[in-house]
Design brief:
The complex is a heterodimer of chains A (461) and B (472). Chain A is α/β, with parallel strands linked by helices. Helices cover 45% and strands 16% of the residues of chain A. Chain A has a 6-stranded parallel beta sheet. A 4-stranded parallel beta sheet of chain A has the order 4-3-5-6, with helices on both faces. Chain A has a 4-stranded parallel beta sheet with strand order 8-7-9-10, sandwiched between helices. In chain A, strand 7, helix 8 and strand 8 form a beta-alpha-beta unit. Chain A is globular, with a radius of gyration of 23 Å. Chain B has 3 domains: 140 residues, 3-Layer(aba) Sandwich (Rossmann fold); 118 residues, Rossmann fold, CATH 3.40.50.12380; 100 residues, Nitrogenase molybdenum iron protein domain (Rossmann fold, 3-Layer(aba) Sandwich), CATH 3.40.50. In chain B, the strands form 3 sheets. A 5-stranded parallel beta sheet of chain B has the order 11-10-9-12-13. Classes of the chains: A alpha/beta (461), B alpha/beta (472). Chains A and B meet through strand 2, helix 2, strand 4, helix 3 and helix 4 of A and helix 4, helix 5, strand 2, helix 6 and helix 7 of B. Chain B: Keywords: Nitrogen fixation.
């Protein structure tokens, strides 16, 4: 069980953390024909927008209630009302996902009350659901916002149901999964003859496709009619501990039983997933997955030479940190530095002795001597200074192509991830070999310290 | 009325602003504050603007006092370069939590400043106020005063909370912080009769380094840039300059005007984008410096340099003329870049099918009309959907814009070149315009366009079927 070390600094240096409202906004971006709306000053939206555009390389519909100093103090009902009407008129979305921010929460805007009053006065909003996620910037971080938005959607949109559709499965997807991961999960579920309702489904909206039209709301994602049928499913599979509250609420409302998968990478987790789908569908595991399992075993055999006893530093959102740490532990590597941006229940189960709640300065301070850094693109400065290779994981990854399609779940995803990481280790070994001379070997034997390796750190602008 | 409110009101009736000069007395008094439309707004906040303007001071620690959103969601995202110190690229924030909101964030801010000085020891700390602490009443200026006195390092309050207004207003509020607390607090080691300030030059992707050799060759010393690749001491001793060039249109006009008033530093508005514009800048600054006591041969030497550099640039552009002649450009930018880029593109034979006048002044508009001979292709706003339609219907061969509209062009399968502040190519100076044209050429002639426009085999079958149905 990992020991959690809370940060004591007053100053966060090189933030790892991102805010809860934009986490919530991304969850709403996984809905079809949706517009997330941040209730705050316009900068809150602009920063989130730029962040998502840089990561996904896609147009991002994201709006603001454009609060000023005066409207903040007087209360934001009028701004919310105007924003909803304007968005309705311009985009006519199926869903507006409203997320509060620091100022409107500190002021104490009663958004629930506002929404009721606005709905009563504006019949023209009919046909557009408005879901509110309370997300003060000063509490929690990105994944907390995501979880709150999904919980709010379950609460507001899923009706109770007496019907059961035995072949229908709900997937509640954590924010650490990529569109590529979600595609793989859907394909796997369908391969057993089941159908999946994924909430939220950014593989529909942010997978980088070329739409036929250009409209100011999301084009693809979970459809409203599907959300409304989630109470009829045979099972809810929550992926990531962050999805547990939403899954439990769904169970409480509809009686659909829940199974939480803390991760979906690694042989054991994938086996459990396959066994569950097989039980549920009463179908045998399709032969292609048996083949993929065998390929994963082979990848583990080929790869373990390069992973064994490697020291790895990881800084990531809690569920991603959990999944990555166990991936490395499964392969014989050691996570000697683990940093999370904010606290979460799953952190005690991370495969490391300690988990720091902190920033990328803490990461840099404790990662010295590691063979690999794993974090989002903001880790590039640390990597350059430490001279340690950086493997990019998580959001934002703005200096690599194809991040939406990066696949690390399932047998196939785990297999390819072993290859990707193993190749980085192999590259280091090669660089290391070039430094070996008879003299250095003798020095090693006495000093027991490796010669300095000029690792190909990936840095720069 | 709060001090911040008074300051904002004074900035909104800025007398140096060309837009304001064009207004009636009554309209001018009303200020230029445009209320934002909830649900239909785009663009950054005042804090964003202040940070953009000041972060290029490279040896300073930039500390954002606010919840994680303000810095955590945005840091290290601008491509302004430094010739040495990297302190400005470190993200510092107080990351205010619930406890700070309840009890006030002043103590955390003070401790954060101390931690930075202990660990980094920068020549100064800039502290950015944001909405949440402004709302709960944190006295950032008081904390900065106390910290400066205690630690002996200048701690500069930048009072531009996001909800004060737009990004442009924030640029100016950032400028005010420099005027109030930095400019004039130090003396240069020495002065020359050819010392100048550049106001509103941010060294995006290092593009100022394409211009600096021109000044160097003429013996003109850039005492301070506001704020590209600037050091704290440069800004602090910038009041000894003999003249200034104001770039980037209106962003930091308050600095230019107030330094003229306070320190008698005359300035003019210029641009480093476009061949004629760079030459114009060099001519005007040479004249201005001679008036201020520079050697009398400076203008003549400038002419020699201009003739040589213009000839070189045109020779380099010659290569592109045949390739780009008649290609249609949709230009979606704002302010000064609209006309300086228009003139350059027309010189290589490209046709401008549209240019946006967002953020542009009356003078900018007049210049576009002068250059294009018509205002028929000017538009104030172009909603993404409309932009997409224009491109989809092949009304333009290439679009030039900021990153925000990049995907409108790409989804319409249209070549696109980035020209705003997030750009990756240095566009300033004589070399800059050649770079821009080279980028356009590279985008237009990439072989992917024909490929991605090719319908899938099944789509071709559908088209043919529809075709035969018509004939039948």
């Amino acid at each position: 069980m990992a020991e959690i070390i809370a940060g004591k600094k007053a100053c966060t240096v090189n933030p790892l953390k991102m805010s809860a409202p934009i986490g919530a906004a991304l969850a709403f971006l996984g809905m079809d024909r949706a517009v997330p709306l941040l209730h705050g000053s316009q900068g809150c939206t602009a920063f989130g927008l730029v962040l998502f555009v840089r990561h996904f390389r896609e147009t991002i519909p994201l709006q603001t209630t454009a609060m000023s100093e005066v409207t903040t103090i007087l209360g934001g009902q009028e701004n919310i009302e105007q924003a909803l009407l304007n968005i309705k008129k311009r985009a006519n979305p199926a869903l507006i996902g409203l997320c509060s921010t620091g100022i409107t929460e500190a002021k104490g805007d009663d958004v629930g009350g506002f929404l009721k009053s606005i709905r009563d006065r504006h019949a023209e909003l009919a046909g557009t659901e408005v879901v509110f996620a309370p997300t003060p910037d000063f509490i929690g971080g990105f994944s907390d916002g995501w979880a709150k938005a999904v919980t709010a959607m379950v609460d507001a949109l899923v009706p109770r149901s007496k019907v059961r559709t035995p072949w229908q499965v709900n997937i509640l997807a954590g924010c650490h999964l990529t569109p590529g991961d979600l595609e793989e999960i859907r394909e796997t579920v369908e391969a057993f003859g089941l159908t999946a309702i994924i909430l939220p489904d950014i593989s529909g909206s942010l997978d980088g496709h070329i739409p036929e039209t250009f409209l100011p709301h999301t084009l693809g994602g979970t459809r409203m009619e599907d959300v409304k049928r989630m109470g009829e499913s045979a099972l809810t599979i929550a992926i990531g501990e962050q999805m547990r509250p939403a899954a439990e609420l769904l169970e409480k409302k509809t009686g659909v039983p829940v199974r939480v998968f803390e991760r979906l990478n690694g042989l054991a987790a994938c086996d459990a997933f396959m066994a569950l789908l097989s039980d549920l569908s009463e179908n045998e595991v399709p032969s292609k997955y048996k083949r993929q399992r065998s390929q994963l075993q082979d990848a583990m055999l080929d790869g373990h030479f390069y992973f064994g006893e490697q020291k790895v530093a990881i800084a990531a959102e809690p569920d991603l940190l959990y999944a990555l740490s166990h991936f490395f532990a499964d392969m014989g590597a050691q996570v000697t530095c683990a940093v999370a941006p904010q606290d979460a229940p799953v952190l005690t189960r991370v495969a490391a002795d300690t988990v720091r709640i902190g920033d990328l300065q803490d990461f840099e301070d404790h990662a010295a001597g590691c063979n690999l850094l794993v974090t989002h693109s903001h880790g590039r400065q640390a990597a350059a200074r430490l001279g340690i290779p950086l493997l990019r994981a998580g959001l934002p990854t703005f200096d690599r192509l194809g991040v939406a399609h990066k696949l690390t779940v399932g047998y196939r995803g785990t297999r390819d991830f072993i290859f990707e990481v193993g190749n980085v280790f192999m590259e280091q070994l090669h660089a290391h070999e070039q430094h070996i001379t008879p003299a250095s070997l003798r020095a090693n034997a006495t000093a027991a310290s490796a010669p300095a390796v000029d690792a190909p750190a990936c840095a720069g602008h | 009325m709060s001090a911040l409110k008074q300051r904002i009101d004074s900035l909104l009736i800025e007398p140096g602003c060309a837009t304001n000069q064009g207004k009636s007395d009554k309209a001018r008094k009303e200020g230029c504050k445009k209320p934002l439309t909830p649900g239909a707004a785009a663009g950054g906040c005042a804090f964003d603007g202040a940070k953009i303007a000041l972060q290029p001071v490279v040896d300073v620690a930039h500390l954002v006092h606010g919840p994680i959103a303000c810095e955590g969601n945005s840091w290290d995202s601008r491509h302004v370069y430094s010739s040495s110190p990297q302190t400005y690229r470190t993200g510092f924030t107080t990351d205010m939590g619930e406890f700070d909101v309840i009890y006030g964030g002043e103590k955390r801010l003070y401790r954060a400043i101390k931690e930075i000085i202990d660990r980094v020891n920068p020549p100064a700390v800039f502290v950015y106020q944001t909405c949440l602490p402004a709302m709960i009443g944190d006295d950032v200026e008081g904390v900065c005063r106390a910290a400066s006195a205690k630690f002996g390092t200048p701690v500069i309050p930048v009072n531009a909370p996001g909800f004060a207004g737009s990004k442009n207003l924030g640029n100016k509020l950032g400028g005010e912080a420099l005027l109030d607390h930095v400019v004039g607090t130090m003396e240069p080691e020495f002065t020359t009769p050819c010392d100048i300030n550049l106001i509103g030059e941010y060294n995006v992707v290092g593009e100022f380094w394409q211009v600096k050799p021109l000044f160097d060759e003429l013996g003109i010393r850039v005492l301070a840039t506001f704020c590209g690749d600037a050091r704290y001491k440069d800004i602090a001793s910038s009041h000894r300059a003999k003249a200034a060039i104001m770039l980037c249109s209106q962003a930091l006009i308050n600095i230019a005007r107030k330094m003229h008033e306070r320190y008698d530093i005359p300035f003019f508005e210029g641009s480093f984008y476009g061949i004629a514009d760079v030459s114009d800048c060099l001519r005007k600054i040479s004249q201005l410096l001679v008036e201020r006591g520079a050697p009398a041969d400076l203008p003549a030497r400038a002419e020699v340099l201009i003739a040589r550099e213009e000839a070189r640039a045109w020779a380099r552009l010659e290569h592109y003329k045949a390739r780009l002649k008649g290609k249609r450009v949709l230009l979606f930018t704002g302010g000064v870049k609209s006309w300086s880029v228009v003139s350059a593109l027309q010189e290589v034979g490209m046709e401008i099918v549209g240019t946006s006048m967002r953020k542009s002044t009356h003078n900018d508009r007049a210049k576009v009309i002068e250059i294009m001979g018509t205002d028929a292709h000017m538009f104030d706003e172009l909603p993404p959907r409309e932009m997409y339609r224009m491109l989809k219907e092949s009304k333009a061969d290439v679009m030039l814009s900021g990153g925000r509209s990049q995907f409108v062009a790409l989804k319409a399968k249209t070549p696109w070149v980035e020209i705003n502040q997030e750009r990756h190519h240095a566009l300033a100076g004589y070399d800059g315009i050649v770079n821009l044209v080279a980028e356009i050429d590279k985008a237009l002639y990439n072989p992917i366009w024909a490929q991605v426009k090719q319908p899938a085999p099944w789509e071709i079958e559908e088209l043919e079927l529809r075709g035969t149905a018509h004939h039948g």
